[in-house]
Design a protein that fits this description.
CATH architecture of the domain at 72-337: 2-Layer Sandwich
Strand content: 15-25%
Distance between the termini: 86 Å
Number of helices: 13
CATH topology of the domain at 72-337: Beta-Lactamase
Oligomer: single chain
Number of strands: 21
Length: 654
């Protein structure tokens, strides 16, 4: 037995563990999936944000490279403009040259020199120098000796002297210098002439404020036009063999337009109109193979200060984003590398972290929710089991209760049948007694009226027969007797009316209360001094005309009878009160003290006792009974000496 109980307990525990595992395994799986998906989404958002910022950086860097490329093209265009200016003229004066290039010098501060270098043969040297000295008396063709000093140029077959140079103040020594005296310069000129188009020299380094910088020289050959050549401007037959070989293939060479520019000045001039973008730029010359020569480094204007050396920045290029472009400057091709500075073009990490925090929070809340639901489901199962057991017990108790109630209903039915029989008997008895009472009232009134009429007639006869013989006291006694007879007759009539209220079936008809009041007032024959106000907007309703007339007649009659004066005022009003009309009858009589308000509606109660008063005390009791039989209410508002106002409600439809 003990072994069986132990086995049952173990089986129950095992089933409970399996149930818990089955319930909570899906929750653990959902939680794991939520964490994994949140991590993947965080990674994707972070990558997307980085790619977005990189794309923006590339667009901004590419825009700057294009702007710099256009600036270099515009700079080379200045040299072409000088060549185009000289080409159509046989001779360009010094003043004309200066006037032409000055606007360009003012607009572009990156110009080191703009030069016009004509080709002069040995035979033309003296004439050329004489003509040049017309605008510059000290002009001569020079070259440098071994010590680097300027001396007169040695005789040679042809010369390439610098005739004009601007800005002059920065290039005084260059004026008249024969470029043919320098083999490298001569080779550069011949290369440009052979190419027949602009040629840019490799970058030339120089020192400025202790910092190594680079510049370049652009040379474009200028040829004689056909008209100038026909006028004797062509070179003579004693030209060098190299030049002569070139002339056999191209038009006659007239000279060269030359421009010298600093690379850094061109770059900075291009970036002036642009808003600082947080980008460092480096221009490299890669023409020497694997080695690259740094030509210029543009530090972003958004740097707070020069934070790193060029070497440190160069070494960090591979570790950060960069954009590489190509600058084509005539025959030269340079590489430009753009890098963002620290603090700019950084991916916003908050988007990813918000996704991560939101995803984990959602997973956490979902886990709590599912855990709660599983717990509630288990609780519901337990409650269902408990309620099922309780329901079975309640069902058994209900079956017993139903049987008991059936027995009780059977007894109640028997009692109900007995009660109905008793009610029928009591109803029949009450109807019989009501008829007997009505018959008694008629009989009593008839039997009482006959002797009262006889007494009244006898009193009248005695008063007629004994006219002049009666004493004053006897006459008063006879008058009092007649009054008592009339009062007794009125009392009997009042009793009959009171007993008939509710006993007789009333006839329903449409009643115009204004017309009804006119007839009632006319039947009461009020004294001439009495004024009775009836408003024109009195309602019309369907009701028992006779009973409503009795109510108005009693109330108006009381106001006239108990006014105490032959002149008075009575006001009648009506008000719509939902399913009822509220009527009021007010007068300016002596009024009724508050302590007598309840007594006024009692049977046989009068507020004044007089020997000759014909009031029976039934009128207001009759009014109250009629109003209550119709389902209405009646009330009295009055103070002694301030008149009385009776209010009663009457249903719109009876």
């Amino acid at each position: 037995m003990i072994l069986r109980q132990t086995t049952a307990l173990q089986q129950t525990a095992t089933n409970g563990s399996l149930l818990i595992w089955r319930n909570y395994f899906p929750i653990a799986l959902v939680t794991l999936l939520g964490v994994v998906l949140t991590g993947l989404l965080f990674r994707e958002v972070t990558i997307w944000e980085r790619q977005r910022v990189q794309s923006i950086f590339r667009d901004v860097a590419q825009d700057r490279v294009l702007v710099i490329q256009r600036e270099f093209e515009h700079t080379l265009g200045l040299v072409r403009d000088v060549g185009n200016f000289v080409e159509p003229s046989r001779w360009v004066g010094r003043r004309e040259f200066r006037k032409f290039v000055n606007p360009a010098l003012k607009r572009h501060g990156n110009i080191q020199a703009l030069q016009w270098v004509p080709r002069v043969t040995a035979a033309e040297r003296d004439a050329f120098v004489s003509k040049a000295r017309r605008s510059f008396t000290r002009f001569r063709i020079t070259q440098r000796d071994d010590q680097g000093q300027l001396v007169g140029a040695e005789p040679r077959s042809e010369y390439f002297p610098i005739l004009y140079v601007q800005p002059y103040q920065l290039n005084k020594e260059a004026l008249g210098f024969d470029l043919a005296s320098d083999p490298r310069e001569l080779q550069s000129l011949l290369t440009a002439a052979a190419a027949g188009e602009m040629q840019v020299s490799p970058p030339v380094s120089f020192s400025r404020d202790g910092i190594e910088q680079f510049s370049f020289v652009a040379r474009i050959p200028v040829y004689y036009t056909d008209s100038i050549a026909s006028q004797g401007g062509a070179m003579t037959s004693d030209q060098p063999a190299d030049t002569a070989k070139l002339q056999t293939q191209r038009p006659l060479l007239r000279g060269f337009a030359i421009g010298k520019f600093r690379i850094g000045d061109v770059v900075e001039q291009a970036l002036v109109p642009l808003t600082p973008g947080g980008i460092d730029m480096r221009i490299y010359d890669t023409s020497s193979g694997d080695e690259r020569q740094l030509l210029y480094h543009h530090a972003s204007r958004m740097r707070a200060q020069w934070q790193h050396t060029l070497e440190e920045d160069a070494n960090s290029i591979e570790d950060s984003w960069k954009f590489t472009g190509t600058l084509k400057v005539a025959n030269q091709q340079w590489t430009i590398v753009c890098n963002p500075i620290a603090g700019y073009f950084q991916a916003d990490p908050w988007n990813g972290w918000v996704i991560l925090a939101g995803g984990l929070a959602f997973t956490f809340l979902l886990t709590i929710y599912l855990t709660t639901q599983v717990g509630q489901a288990a609780k519901v199962r337990r409650l269902v089991d408990e309620r099922t057991e309780q329901l079975m017990e309640s069902n058994a108790a209900l079956v017993n209760e139903v049987a008991a109630r059936k027995l009780t209903e059977q007894k109640l039915q028997e009692l109900n049948e007995t009660l109905e029989q008793r009610v029928a008997l009591r109803t029949a008895l009450a109807e019989r007694r009501a008829k007997e009472l009505e018959q008694f009232a008629y009989v009593a009134s008839h039997d009482l009226k006959a002797p009262l009429r006889a007494i009244g007639n006898l009193t009248s006869w005695l008063e007629e027969d004994l006219t002049g013989k009666l004493t004053k006291e006897t006459s008063e006694q006879l008058t009092l007797l007649k009054d008592r007879v009339e009062r007794m007759q009125a009392l009997i009539e009042g009793l009959l009316k009171y007993s008939r209220v509710g006993a007789m079936e009333s006839s329903k008809e449409t009643v115009d209360t204004a017309q009804l009041l006119a007839e009632t007032i006319d039947s009461l024959s009020p004294p001439e001094g009495f004024v009775i106000d009836v408003p024109p907007d009195m309602p019309t309703l369907r009701t028992d005309r006779l009973q409503l007339s009795q109510v108005f007649a009693n109330l108006i009659g009381n106001s006239i009878k108990h006014h105490g004066s032959k002149q008075g005022h009575v006001w009648i009003k009506a008000r719509d009160d939902g399913e009822y009309y509220e009527f009021s009858v007010a007068d300016d009589g002596p009024g009724i003290a508050p302590e007598y308000h309840k007594k006024a509606f009692m049977m046989f109660q009068t507020l004044a006792t007089k020997d000759f008063e014909s009031d029976t005390g039934i009128g207001l009791a009759l009014v109250k009974k009629i109003v209550q039989e119709q389902g209405g209410l009646i009330s009295l508002e009055s103070e002694e000496g301030k008149g009385a106002k009776f209010r009663f409600t009457w249903p719109k439809k009876v």
